[in-house]
Amino acid sequence: MQRILVLNGPNLNLLGKRQPNIYGKLTLDDIEANCAEIAKTLGITVKFTQSNHEGELIDRIQTASENFDGIILNAGAFTHTSVAIMDAIGSVETPVLELHLSNIHKREEFRHNSFVAKVAIGMICGLGANGYPLALQAMRDYLQAQNQG
User: Fold this and answer.
1) pTM (2 decimals)?
2) What pLDDT, in 10s, does the model give residues 25-67?
3) 48: closest CA among 141, 128, 109, 136?
4) Is 105 a catalytic residue?
5) What share of the chain is helix, strand, coil (3-state, %, to 5)?
6) Which of 56, 51, 59, 46 has its CA nearest to residue 13?
7) Which CATH number applies to 2-148: 3.40.50.1110, 3.40.1190.10, 3.40.50.9100, 3.30.420.10?
C-alpha cells in the first residue's frame, strides 16, 4: 500500500477563518477528514501534517522516505521564498507534488514564482479543497507508474 505524506505549510492551520473568499470555508481538519475517506477508496495510506516553521518542513521532507513513498506539499508562502525547501526536495528521492488552494498565477505577481515547481513532479492549483483528493490520486498514479517502469 502506498504511503503519502500531505505536508502543509504556514498559515494553513487558519483555513476556514483566513480569507475564506480566497481559501474557502473548510478547515484543514475538514480537508484531512475528506482525504482520509478518499485514501481508503484509492487504496493508499495518507498522513497529514502542518507547520508554520520552514526548518520543520525541511526536516519532514528530508526524512519522509523513511515512512512515505511520496509527498504532497502545500508550502504556502514558502513556495515563493524558500530556496531551502527547494534544495531539500532536490536532495531527496521522494517525489513531491506541489499543491495550492488558490490559483497562484492569478494572484499578486510575487506569487507567480514557485521555487517548489522547479523540483516537483507537477502542480495542482486553483481548485480549492478539491485539489487535495486530486493530488492524492495523481500521486498514487505517479507512484504506480514508477513501480511499473
Assistant:
1) 0.94
2) 899 999 999 999 999 999 999 999 999 999 999 999 999 999 9
3) 136
4) no
5) 55, 20, 30
6) 51
7) 3.40.50.9100
Give the active site residue among 23, 105, 112, 142: 23
Residue 100 appears among annotated catalytic residues = yes
- State how far the alpha carbon of 24 is from the alpha carbons of 8, 17, 35, 43, 133, in Å: 16, 9, 16, 27, 15
Maximum CA pair distance of the chain?
A: 44
pLDDT tens, position by position, 69-96: 999 999 999 999 999 999 999 999 999 9
Distance, in Å, from the CA atom of 135 to the CA atom of 13, rounded to the nearest integer, reads 19
Nearest partner of 77 among 136, 18, 129, 35, judged by Cα: 18
What are the residue boundaries of the structural domains of the chain, listed by start? 2-148
Q: Cell 505524506 belongs to which residue?
A: 5
Cell of 105: 498565477
Instruction: Write down the catalytic residue from 100, 112, 132, 142.
Output: 100
Other CB atoms within 10 A of residue 112 CB: 11
